[in-house]
Specification:
Elements: H1 10-36, H2 40-44, H3 47-66, H4 68-72, H5 76-123, E1 127-128, E2 134-135
Antiparallel strand pairs: 1-2
Length: 154
């Protein structure tokens, strides 16, 4: 069961939607700039604000869809601004997806290199070979178990 939320002041609601849209675009653009500069930890700090604004934006769009009278009350200037914001949002979000995918790929390659180096370190330990002579790669054929935990969060 869905509940329709009534909008009492249509103009204020549209202004609020415009404001949230502008803030969300700003945060996504800021995150994009940080990702381009490979400042991943700083970019991660924007996640809570981005999530909060995304939630507010989704709720406002849902309310807008449930209230055709609000849509009908939008002025031409507001429609033009909302169309511009929608285009800017799509562009920023598309770039954000691309940059996050690239950052994740880089992160996975680094983790794989760390894993491979750890495995190589374990497999190149000194020990006794089959004829009981000391060698540098005695463990290569008989690898020890290696337990490594890698955090894959970006």
């Amino acid at each position: 069961m869905t509940q329709t939320i009534a909008v009492e002041n249509k103009s204020d609601f549209i202004d609020m939607l415009i404001g949230v849209s502008e803030q969300l675009i700003h945060v996504i653009s800021e995150e994009n700039a940080l990702l381009k500069d490979r400042k991943y930890n700083t970019a991660g700090g924007l996640q809570s604000e981005k999530a909060r604004l995304s939630f507010a934006y989704e709720n406002q769009i849902r309310v807008l869809r449930e209230n055709p009278a609000v849509v009908a009350s939008i002025s031409q200037d507001q429609k033009a601004l909302l169309n511009d914001l929608a285009a800017r949002f799509d562009e920023a979000a598309s770039e954000n997806i691309h940059l996050l995918t690239a950052a994740r790929h880089i992160n996975l390659r680094v983790l794989e290199a760390i894993r491979d180096a750890a495995i190589e370190q374990v497999s190149s330990t000194r020990g006794y070979s089959n004829p009981a002579t000391v060698t540098a790669n005695a463990g290569k054929g008989n690898k020890e178990a290696l337990s490594v935990t890698l955090d894959q969060r970006l």
